[in-house]
Structure formats: structure tokens, C-alpha cells
Amino acid sequence: MFSSLPKDASTVRDWSWSQFESYYHDLAARSLSASSVTEWLADWTRIADLVYETFARLHLASTANTADREAEQRYRTFLDNIYPHAQAADQKLKERLLTSGLEPEGFAIPLRNLHTEAALFREINLPLLAQDLKFGNEYDKIIGAQTVQWEGEEVTVSQLRPAYQNPNRALRERAWRLAAQRQLADRAAINELWQKFLGLRQQIAANADFADYRSYRWKHFLRFDYTPADCATFHRAIEQVVVPAATRIYEKRRKRLGLQTLRPWDLEVDSLGHPPLKPFADVAELKAIASSIFDRVDSRLGEYYDTMVRESLLDLDNRKNKAPGARCVSFPAARRPFIFMNAVGLHDDLQTMLHESGHAFHNFERNLLPYHQQRHVGMEFAEVASMSMELLAAPYLAYDQGGVYSETDAARARIEHLEKSILFWPYMAVVDAFQHWVYENPAAANDLANCDARWAALWQRFMPGVDWGGLEQEMMTGWHRKLHIHRMPFYYVEYGLAQLGAVQVWANALHDQAGAVASYRRALALGGTVALPELYATAGAKFAFDADTLGRAVDLVERTIAELEGS
């Protein structure tokens, strides 16, 4: 019957569960043997890919315009009527494969994952998991609706970002305070939603027989190669070797700007008084710039990107009621990625394009694997794909390399990126440590004042160098504005680990760019068929948490910044 299954997910968007269900019933009823398992897995992949892509497209539509009631209703209908049934049907097929004792080629890691997922599954949790996604949609709506009046126009808070790069300090401060005032206006709404998230997640963990949500989430993320204790080790390493480097960057900025203290609205303006880098005027120009850069990095990667442009797989501009952030979404049935972001014309947007395109290239490569179970990759390595691409593309930012900047501005852009890499690790530690505290202490975290106080304490521990005097409310509610905390709990340490991996990939590229890119692509193509340390090793890096490895990475970044500043 699978010969009649559509290949295009858009044709099944409005299917009822009964239409999907017949295919799952067919798979459940078949005999399973060494001779039939490959066809069985191929058919399971086809229906699973269609269901996932339908979910991804409906969610994407609901975030592209959070005011679109029809799109939101389609997504909610899917969560209510399809998602729980598909999860339950998928569980039965997992159990079927596991009890068969069959071990298809290239399935050692996927089988390990399936064992864990099967043990984690509780039917009672299906509507709760759907509700968690709905709460996430509510968070997107709150953030997406945040607009202000600026110079006679209604603009989103994100669209104020260019003002933070204006040399006029009074103007920067006015824009920053306007945005902060609008964000604080939603403090009660986000706090109320937070308590709903927290109670729901505790119940999900309890239903799955876990003592706390962190333990549940660790299994959910299939984290076999590190523990919460390793995260604490990483936090201490960041405090030891990165925070001093970050403090040096802030102090250099303060001196160059001639300020007594550095304030939050002083962090984006060029410290030497240069005008902001404006690499593109509109998203069409952004697409063209990215295409040129990727073709220089690797011709195959350039082809992948051009495919996305031709097939309209990019939604790049910021607009009112568009959900915040940037992400790469997988369409597995079509074997295509989709990039969603909020560009407003800054260099940061170009960096985001490089980053999300790294995820897209990973999707192209791993989707060549035959079975969907082989394509699951932990974000600890998926983020290596994206962060490495930012660094591998860096040599091609200048005009004479096919890029968009003069040699001087290309150096500026690289310095800015490398400095932000150092500044990111301490911020990552704040976000990750906050989440560990929340789910270790859920009763305390249910009190919003405790959450604010914990965030403030972590901020003071990891983020010295900026004066927040008189802005205590804005600082302590920073956790409101980190969507991962609300929408994707415990998904953030991956960025810190992956950045360490990416710097190692880049270190290899400094000696052999072509060889480093080749190793990078080999690792992407492995998908989820090998364990995390092997993925890192294939890419030319070490999966690590220690201060020595981190210190070597920080030293390379600081030395390169010094070289670029002297060029």
C-alpha cells in the first residue's frame, strides 16, 4: 500500500489521523525478518518523514505570522489530532524492531536511541507534550507582538537593533530603554506562562518515573556522552579561562569609547567610531552575498545553498508578528532544509545566515542516509556544523575573495565575530546554569522573585565588565528574553560545547582550509550513525569540557584578534 503514499507533505496537511493510521497498521502487521527489515525500515521512514514534515511546516506557518489565526488553528489541530496518535504508533514500531532482535547495518547508535526513547515513552504524556508546544506558541506570540514607536513608525523590538550601533550615545540609550520598557510590559504575562511551563514539565517527568525534569530531559535529548556534572565542570572552566578574556574585551571597548563605565547600550557600537557594517540593503542582496561566499568555501555547499534560493526555502526578513530568533527547519520527506530568521540589515544577520546555512548543509548531507533513525544528530554536534561554517566562511568576507567588505571592514567583521565568540561562552554558562538550578529546585523556581535573583547572581558571576546600575529590573529579567529557556529547556549548553569544537575545526583550517572543509563534510554525512566523540573526531576536534582545551581555544581567538587589529 505504500506505493500510494504521497511524497509531498503539502498534500497530507489536512489529513485525518485515520488516513495516516492505515500505513502504521500495515507496518505493525507485517512479518519482520532479516530479509524484510530493510524494506520495512524504508516504509517506516516514508510515513515518519511525512508526519514530521507536516508538523514542521504547520509550526513554521504559525511562527511566520503569529497573528494568523488560521495557521495557528491548523497547528493546534495537528497537535491535538495527529501528534499524539503518531507518537503512540511510532512507539509500537520501535518496540517491534527492538523485540525482533534484528540489528540492521549502520544501526548500532540508532538502536541505542530507540531503546532509550521506548523506555521514556508514556502515553499519558502525549497530550502534555502537545500542551508544552502550545505554551511555546503562546511565548512566541508575546514576543512577536512587541513593537514600539520609533521615529514616527511602529517597529518591532528587533528592528531597533541598528540604533544600538549608532555613534550617538544618547540615541542608543533612548532606543535601548524603549525596547526594555516594552519588554518589561510583558513581565507578568511571561511569568504566568513560566509557571504553567514549570508545572507541566514536572508532571511529564513524574509520569515517566523520573525524580526531576532534568533527568527526564537528559534522556529525551539522548545524552549518553556527558552528564550534568560535566556541565558544571564546563561552567567552572569558562569562569576560569573565558571570563578574564571577556573582561579584557569589555575593558578595551570602554577605553576606546572613552567612557567611565560601559553600559548595555554601548556594546554594539563600533568602539573606534566607524559606521556600522551594513553588508546588505535587502534580503535579495543577502542571498546573493551568501551564495558567493559558500561557493568559495566549497562548490558542493554552494550548490546546496543555491538550491534553497531557487526553491524558496528561505524566510529571512524581520516583520511585525513574526516569531523571534532564527532556526533551520528540516523537511525530511522533501529532503530539504528551510531557514527562518529575522534580518534587519546588520552584519549579525550575515553571521546568522552563515550559521543557519551550516545547519542546512548538515541537513542536505545527513538526509542522504536511507532511514530516519540514522539521521538524528544531537545538537552538541549539529551546532558544530553551524558554528564551524561561520569560521570556515570568514576568509571569504572581503571583496577580493568574493565577499562584501573591503579588507579593512572584513577584518572588522572577523574581530567582531571572534570577540562575540569569547563573550558568548560566559552568557551560555548563565543560561545553562540557570536551567540546572530551575529543575533542581522547581519549588523555588515557581517563585518568580527567586528566578530573577538566581539569574542576577549568575550574571554577576559570569558577566562582569558592564555597568547595570539603575537597570536591575532589566538585568534580572534577562531570562524572559532567552527563548530556549521557555521553548527548548536544556538546549543551550550545546552551543558552548559546539563552539569549542568549531574553534578546533577552524584551527585545522588555518593550516589546511580544503582539508578541514573535507573533514567537516565527512562528519556531517555520518548523521547519527556514530557516537558524539567520534563525530567530533571525524570533524577534526575533541569533545571536551576541560579548562586546558578551552584555554587553547581562547588563546587562538585572542591571538587572531590581535593579528587582525594589527593588519
Give a verbal description of the structure:
With 567 residues, the protein is mainly alpha-helical. The protein has a domain at 2-105. Helices cover 64% and strands 4% of the residues. It contains 23 helices and five strands. The chain has helices at 17-29, 37-64, 69-81, 83-100, 108-120, 126-144, 169-184, 187-207, 213-220, 228-257, 283-297, 299-310, 347-366, 379-393, 407-440, 442-445, 448-462, 472-476, 483-487, 493-509, 513-525, 532-539, 547-566; strands at residues 147-150, 153-156, 314-317, 327-331, 336-343. The protein has a three-stranded mixed β-sheet with strand order 3-5-4, with helices on both faces. Helix 11 runs antiparallel to helix 12 (299-310), helix 15 packs antiparallel against helix 23 (547-566) and helix 21 packs antiparallel against helix 22 (532-539). The longest helix is centred in the last third of the chain and has 34 residues, at 407-440. It is globular. The chain starts with 16 loop residues before the first helix and ends with a helix. 41% of the residues are buried. The mean pLDDT is 96.
Q: Which structural class is indicated by helix and strand composition?
A: mainly alpha
| Helix proportion | 55-70%
Query: What distance separates the N and C termini?
Result: 65 Å
- What radius of gyration results from the CA coordinates? 24 Å
* Secondary structure: number of strands: 5
For the biggest sheet, the summary is: 3 strands, mixed
Beta-strand fraction estimate: under 5%
Q: Would you identify the regions where 5 or more consecutive residues have pLDDT less than 50?
A: none
What order do the SSEs take from the amino end to the carboxyl end, as H and E? Answer: HHHHHHEEHHHHHHEEEHHHHHHHHHHH
What is the helix tally? 23
Strand order of the largest sheet: 3-5-4
